[in-house]
Structure formats: C-alpha cells, structure tokens
Amino acid sequence: MSTTMNVSLVSNSKALLGEGPVWNTTTGQLYWLDILEHNLHIHNPGHPQNDDIITIPPYISSVITRQSGGIVLTLQDGFYSYDLSTRELTLLAEVESSLTDNRFNDGKCDPRGRYLAGTMSLSNQLSKGSLYSMDREYKVTTLLTEVSISNGLAWSAEGNTLYFIDTPTRNVVAFDYELETGHISNRRVVVQIPDHLGFPDGMTIDAEGMLWVAHWGGWCVTRWNPLNGQLLQTVPVPASQVTSCTFGGTDLDTLYITTARVGLSEEELSKQPDAGGLFIIKLGITGTSSTAFAG
Length: 295
Hints:
Strands 1-24-23-22 form a 4-stranded antiparallel beta sheet, with no helix packed on it. Strands 2-3-4-5 form a 4-stranded antiparallel beta sheet, with no helix packed on it. Strands 6-7-8-9 form a 4-stranded antiparallel beta sheet, with no helix packed on it. Helices cover 2% and strands 51% of the residues. A hairpin with a 5-residue loop joins strand 14 (150-155) and strand 15. The relative contact order is 0.18. The chain has a single domain (8-282), classed as 6 Propeller (Neuraminidase). The chain contains 1 helix and 24 strands. It is mainly β.
C-alpha cells in the first residue's frame, strides 16, 4: 500500500549524513544529526528561524534526552553527556577507543533508560562493529559482536521485544528482551527488505506496534508488521538516501524523516536537490515517545 500524500521539506540543511532524529517532548524540539559534519541540529517547529546547529566532534551519531537534564550522545569512541547551556561535554564511558577505524552509529534508550548504541567500520569493512548497552551507572555491556553497520533500534510496547537492523543484511531482526537485566536472546528475522527498496537504515515504532524503516538507496520510508513481515505502507521521499525517521509533534502524529547527500554526483544531486534535508509528513498515525537516559 502506497500513500498518495507528499512529504514536506522543513529544513533544507543539505546535510552530508543526516541521521538520528529524536523528539524532545519537554521542549517541543526535534534533535537530529549530521554525522560527517559533526553537527547537532535543533529544529523548532513553527519557528525554523530559531533552529540551531552545534558542532560536537568527532562523529556525533546519536542523541538522547536525559532524565537529570541535558542530553547524552555517542561520539566516535564512547558515550558522553552534554550541557546545552554551558556547551560542556563529559565522557561517561569510553568504548572501542583503540579501534580507530570504527565509530558509533545509531542509538536509543530502552524502556528502562539504558542507552543502546552500536558501532561500524569507517572503511566499510564487514562484521567489525558491535552493539553495546550503557546502564544508569555508566557500565557498558556488549550485546552483539560481528555487526557490520549497527542501525535502527525499537522496542515493543511491553518492552519485551527488541527490534534491530544491521544494514547490509537487509533484515530487521527481533530479540526477546529482559527489561530487568537488558539481556537479549532468541534472535529471529521478522522483516526481509527486498533488493529494490535498497538497504534498511534507521527505524522507529508506532503506537500500533508497526515498524517504520528508512531506506538507504530506496527513496522511501516503509511501514511493516513485525508479526508477519507484511509491508503495509510506502512513503516516497524525494531523496535516494533516506536515513532515519521518528514521530514528533504535540500529538506524536508527525513523521520526521532525515536524508543524506554524501557520495551523490552533481548529476544525481540535480535530480534530488533537497537531499540532506529534513522532511515531515502526517499520516493519521501516532508514534511513541522516546525514553530518556536514566542516568
């Protein structure tokens, strides 16, 4: 099923690698990133003239609100906290600091406020990354190894199922998730992405438990039923490299979509001039709010 509605461009940022959108329910702002330009974008719906860009190197790749205030984020070599007022950056946990060819990629918090984030190779080597979990005491646990491009994360409403994307596999997998311990088990494939839709990238989940997947090289975002692997909806995007999505807005009924322009030729960019921009669409579907880091 394809939607006839069109997405709207709300920020023509021309990001090299737009990623990691997260809605701040407290401030009514959307945080999103340009990993390769090391930028945190803060979007103010209705007042885009007040949008802000903060440079936080190296390779800021995910951002989460924090229960105690401020934000937490992943840089190339670990988990950090950041004070938006003082612009003070504090290391919480160093990870893979000796693996200089790796960097963190996507990350989100589980329903208990643990921060899960995974890594990938900067030189596109396969199986060099891992998926990690940091608890409120900043203890880091390795959940998965031999990951190629650690990407989309989402949890079921009950919190007992974790969905995860390792992009080159073209699969969305599910794990049984123990909320008390953060332990994962029983890996299985729940969605298989066909070749013509490119590669699955970032992901979110809606209030009905359906998964929304951004497609790198696929010009779209799709909605899937993880219980039977059925494709439910396709949202075309006027950019080939669609990277991630999340629900925001006062009623969590606006789907925000990030895109990238890295690697595109001048000819390709002439056909998708808004690549690297931030897009929105309202589909009559409600999302779920993101969980803040508990530490």
